[in-house]
C-alpha cells in the first residue's frame, strides 16, 4: 500500500445490501439449532446492521428492524420507534466517508431464547482513519415455530469524539 486510502468504499458496493440480507435469511431454521449456528446468525444480523449504518441505507435498515424493539441505552423506557432514518441519524455525521465495525460478539442460549452482546466502532475515513465513537449492542432473538426472530436491540455509546452531535 502506498499510504493512500483503499480505492473502494463500502458505499460503492451496490449489491452489498443484497449480500447482507441473503446471509441474514439463510440458515435460520430452528430445527437443529446449535450455539455456533445462532452465533453465526447474530454475526450476520449485526454485520448487516453496521452496513446499513455505514451506507445510510434506510431500506436495508427498515427490513432488518421490522418488528424489533430498538432502545438507546439500557433504559427499557427509552424504547421508541425511531424508524430507520432515526437510527441512522443517531450515529456520527454520515456525510463523511465512514464505516462501522462490529466485534467481540458473545451469545448465550437459554432454551428458545438467545441473548447477544457486541462492541461497535465508528471510523471516519476522510483522511487518517479515526475512531469517532465506540459502544455496545445488546439484544435478543426468540425461536419461533420455524425461524429465529430478532426481538430486541439496544444501542449504548461508551465514548464519542469531542464535538460530536451527541458527545
Walk me through the structure.
α1 (16-25) packs antiparallel against α2. 26% of the residues are buried. This protein has helices at 16-25, 35-55, 58-65, 83-89, and strands at residues 69-72, 98-110, 113-124, 130-143, 148-160. By secondary structure, the chain is of the alpha+beta class. A hairpin with a 5-residue loop joins β3 and β4 (130-143). The protein contains 4 helices and 5 strands; from the N terminus they run αααβαββββ. The longest helix has 21 residues, at 35-55. Helix content is 28%, strand content 34%. Strands 1-5-4-3-2 form a 5-stranded mixed β-sheet, covered by helices on one side. It has one domain (14-160): Nuclear Transport Factor 2, Chain: A (Roll).
Proportion of beta-strand residues: 25-35%
Order of helices and strands: HHHEHEEEE
CATH topology tier name: Nuclear Transport Factor 2, Chain: A
Quaternary status: single chain
List the keywords.
single chain; 167 residues; alpha+beta; Nuclear Transport Factor 2, Chain: A; five-stranded mixed sheet; 4 helices; 5 strands; 34% strand; disordered N terminus; disordered C terminus
Task: Give a short summary of the structure.
This protein is an alpha+beta fold and 167 residues long. It has four helices and five strands, in the order H-H-H-E-H-E-E-E-E. It has one domain (14-160): Nuclear Transport Factor 2, Chain: A (Roll), CATH 3.10.450.50.
